[in-house]
Design brief:
The complex is a heterodimer of chains A (about 110) and B (about 120). By secondary structure, chain A is mainly β. In chain A, about 0% of the residues lie in helices and about 50% in strands. In chain A, strands 2, 4, 5, 6, 9, 10 and 11 form a seven-stranded mixed β-sheet that branches. In chain A, strands 1-3-8-7 form a four-stranded antiparallel β-sheet, with no helix packed on it. With about 120 residues, chain B is mainly β. In chain B, strands 2, 5, 6, 10, 11 and 12 form a six-stranded mixed β-sheet that branches. The chains are: A mainly beta (about 110), B mainly beta (about 120). Chains A and B meet through strand 4, strand 5 and strand 6 of A and strand 6, strand 10 and strand 11 of B.
């Protein structure tokens, strides 16, 4: 059982570069979400999706784009990386909204 | 929209002592409530959840939590802490918003266990 798989695990970018963080789940979950985790701030919701073709903004969406073309995949794109986006990013999925979420192991992203 | 507050940034307890981690939420109706635990370098693992019904819920690893509507609280408890419980604990609140269902997390409480 793979669960929620995030790639890469670590990445270093330069300011202004673009990048896509990958997230895939094999549980046929409808609901997927992206969070960033910063010290003292817990997990903050970036974007979420209630099903293929449907996405919406969370608490801190600026600077990030998402799409959901399939049930399995929910990539997060940074169009022009900024040092403020240095963080640990977690992808999560659940059968539907309101159900407990399964988390990936995270992607540690540093932007210089 | 909902919000979550975990008033304690960190707590230190002795091994074998009891534990209570506080969580307060803000939402107009009864939300979905969760507690998750995160060990260093790991993702989050669900400890327990509350949707409706009995306000005292049991979770894994000997944890329990009590939903108190009048206090808008969902505090996590454990009668006897083990050294392996040292981790960061997150309270989360899920609720239906205009854009769909959102789950929002508190800032977390880091638990230290001393021998």
């Amino acid at each position: 059982n793979a669960g929620v798989t995030q790639t890469p695990k670590f990445q270093v970018l330069k300011t202004g570069q673009s990048m896509t963080l990958q997230c895939a789940q094999d549980m046929n979950h409808e609901y997927m979400s992206w969070y960033r985790q910063d010290p003292g701030m817990g997990l903050r919701l970036i974007h979420y999706s209630v099903g293929a073709g449907i996405t919406d903004q969370g608490e801190v969406p600026n600077g990030y784009n998402v799409s959901r073309s399939t049930t399995e995949d929910f990539p997060l794109r940074l169009l022009s990386a900024a040092p403020s986006q240095t963080s640990v990013y977690f992808c999560a999925s659940s059968r539907q909204g309101g159900q407990p979420q399964h988390f990936g192991d995270g992607t540690r992203l540093s932007i210089l | 929209a909902q919000s979550v507050t975990q008033p304690d940034i960190h707590i230190t307890v002795s091994e074998g002592a009891s534990l209570e981690l506080r969580c307060n939420y803000s939402y107009g109706a009864t939300p979905y409530l969760f507690w998750y635990v995160q060990s260093p370098g790991q993702g989050l693992q669900l400890l327990l959840k509350y949707f409706s019904g009995d306000t005292l819920v049991q979770g894994i690893k000997g944890f329990e939590a009590e939903f108190k509507r009048s206090q808008s609280s969902f505090n996590l408890r454990k009668p006897s802490v083990h050294w392996s419980d040292a981790a960061e604990y997150f309270c989360a609140v899920g609720a239906l918003n205009t854009g769909g269902f959102k789950t929002i997390f508190g800032a977390g409480t880091r638990l230290f266990v001393k021998a």
